[in-house]
Each structure stands twice: as structure tokens, then as C-alpha cells.
Design goal:
Elements (H helix, E strand, L loop, with lengths): L4 E6 L7 H14 L5 E6 L6 H5 L8 H5 L5 H4 L1 E2 L5 E3 L16 H8 L5 E6 L5 H9 L2 E6 L3 H16 L4 E9 L8 H8 L3 E6 L2 H8 L4 H4 L4 H13 L9 H18 L11
Parallel strand pairs: 1-5, 1-6, 2-4, 2-5, 6-7, 7-8
Antiparallel strand pairs: 3-4
Helix pairs in contact: 1-11, 5-6
This protein binds adenosine-5'-triphosphate (ATP) and magnesium ion.
Adenosine-5'-triphosphate (ATP) binds next to helix 1, strand 7 and helix 9.
């Protein structure tokens, strides 16, 4: 009777874009692909899904669930963006004695109710990250295009393999298309993980964070949003219709216009050089 699948978004490096990927994928899977989605904040010691989504005022957290204090239905938050959230324990809610390995059991229960259970993981190589790895049917690693992060991605591959898991895809994030960056084909070849998406470094992602919204909601046709839609379609083997040329152009212009608003007018046309 199991209906859904659990997908863990991991990296052994902080700040590469795991939480950003989780919330944007949840948003497009729910709103563009009509899937029933729950996001699990499994970054136990530094939970921040709530900071990206503004869902911080919860009575209970994942710790209460893992410690058997409450039921799933007591802790799930129905988010207005179209998906559900199992929040982490912010502030005083942190409990270092929680039984992280119970996560798999809870995720398996969630799979009976949702099409997709998306897990946001901790970047630290400890039981927190391991609990996401073992609770996931599929794993995707987020990396930026530089050597140190590639190194941690290789460690993630090894860690997953030690747990008899395979990493299904590489999400390359914060790409600036500069000569000094590692090329996406090289990242794919050197990591041995199939590349499922390339997401540009885009200030609108930071703007979306400041507005407590996924970037895919702020501008659904930006390069970042289209990249997340493609990744979501690959994750679930769903058809994806590339938007028409003029829709894309309008999406790019909308992002460009936002930059224009913040540039110094005295620079004049130099902005476009
Ligand atoms: N494509 C992008 N372009 C610009 N900024 C981005 C992009 N992706 C993520 N960011 C920004 O990078 C920062 C770190 O992102 P995020 O919190 O998603 O990383 P993380 O891997 O979850 O970090 P941690 O391991 O600490 O939880 C955030 O400020 C986020 O808005
Ligand atoms: Mg995070």
C-alpha cells in the first residue's frame, strides 16, 4: 500500500543550497506537477526549513515525534504554499537525545500518505546525515562547481555506498559560468553521478529568502525556476513541457528588471556591458 517515495537532498558541506533545493522542489512538485508533498526538516542541529518558509510557530517538532511524544498528525504543518512540512526543533526545541534512527520508520509512515517525502539533511557527517541517508529511497547531492565541494561530494558518494545506497543525481548549484569554475561535464564525470540539473547563481534566490518564499514562487519563469522544474520532472520521471520562447524571455526580463532596480543609475548603460 506504500504510495510515495522518499528523496533525501544531501551534501557534506554547508551552504551549498540543500534547503533552497528542497523548498523549491517541494513548491514545483506540488504546484506544477500536482503531487502531494511533505518536507521533512532532518537537519536536526541547525534546522532552517522554517526560516525559508516562515513556518516557525509550531507547537511540536520532529524531536517530539522521534521521541514518541506525539503522532505524525500532531506535528505536520499544512503550509499555504501547497505542501506540508514536518518542522525541525528551533531554539529551545533542540534535543540532542532524539533517536535519529527512528526517522526511517516515520518516513515510511509518511510514504503511505504522500507522493513525495523530501528530506532536508544536515551537512555534518554524523548520525544526523546518516539518518537521512537510510530513510531515503533516493538520494540527490547538491554541489557547487569548485574543487573543495567536489571533494565533499566524493565523500558523500562513498558514505552512501557504505550504506548500500546509490546517489541518483547531482544538482549543480550557484553556477556563474566563469572560466575558473569546474565545468558541469567535469563535475559529472569526476563524481560519477548523473547530472540532473544546473542552477545559476541568482540574486533572486536571496531575495526570495528575504521574502520567505521559494524562488519558484517569486518568478515561476526565471532560469532558477525552470531548472528546478526540470529537476523535479526527472526525479519523478514526469513529462516536462519547456515553456514557450516568449514566456522564457519575459521570465529573464523580470529577473533583469529586479537587478536594474538596484543598480546605480549613474552607471547608465554601463550596466548592460
Ligand atoms: N542558486 C542560488 N543563487 C544564489 N544564492 C543561492 C542559490 N542557492 C542558494 N543560495 C543561497 O545560499 C545560502 C545557503 O543556501 P541553503 O541554506 O539552501 O544551503 P544549505 O546547503 O541548506 O546550508 P546548510 O547545510 O547550512 O543547511 C542561502 O542564503 C541561499 O539563499
Ligand atoms: Mg540547509
Amino acid at each position: 500500500m506504500v504510495k510515495g517515495k522518499s528523496i533525501g537532498i544531501i551534501s557534506i558541506k554547508g551552504g551549498v543550497g540543500k534547503t533552497t533545493s528542497v523548498i523549491n522542489l517541494a513548491h514545483v512538485l506540488a504546484n506544477d506537477f500536482g503531487k502531494k508533498v511533505v518536507v521533512v526538516d532532518a537537519n536536526f542541529s541547525s534546522p532552517n526549513v522554517a526560516l525559508h518558509l516562515g513556518a516557525a510557530n509550531n507547537k511540536y517538532s520532529i524531536f517530539d515525534l522521534l521521541n514518541g511524544k506525539v503522532k505524525l498528525s500532531d506535528v505536520i504543518h499544512e503550509h499555504e504554499f501547497g505542501f506540508h512540512v514536518l518542522p525541525g526543533g528551533m531554539g529551545n526545541g533542540f534535543n540532542s537525545n532524539a533517536n535519529y534512527m527512528k526517522l526511517k520508520e516515520k518516513v515510511n509512515q509518511l510514504k503511505n500518505h504522500y507522493d513525495v517525502v523530501l528530506l532536508d539533511s544536515s551537512p555534518t557527517l554524523n548520525n544526523e546525515l546518516l539518518s537521512t541517508i537510510v530513510a531515503s529511497d533516493e538520494l540527490y547531492v547538491v554541489s557547487t562547481p569548485d574543487l573543495p565541494t567536489l571533494g565533499t561530494t566524493l565523500r558523500a558518494v562513498k558514505l552512501a555506498r557504505d550504506k548500500k545506497m546509490n546517489i541518483n543525481g547531482l544538482i549543480l548549484n550557484k553556477v556563474r559560468s566563469k572560466n575558473y569554475e569546474l565545468k558541469s561535464a567535469d563535475m559529472e564525470r569526476l563524481s560519477g553521478i548523473p547530472l540532473v540539473g544546473v542552477i545559476n547563481d541568482n540574486v533572486r534566490v536571496l531575495e526570495a529568502l528575504s521574502k520567505v518564499k521559494p524562488a519558484t514562487m517569486l518568478n515561476p519563469n526565471s532560469d532558477v525556476s525552470l531548472a528546478y522544474k526540470k529537476i523535479a520532472s526527472k526525479m519523478l520521471s514526469l513529462p516536462y513541457g519547456e515553456p514557450k520562447f516568449h514566456t522564457k524571455i519575459l521570465g529573464y526580463l523580470k529577473d533583469d528588471f529586479a537587478k536594474l532596480k538596484t543598480h546605480k543609475w549613474s552607471k547608465g548603460l554601463a550596466y548592460y556591458k
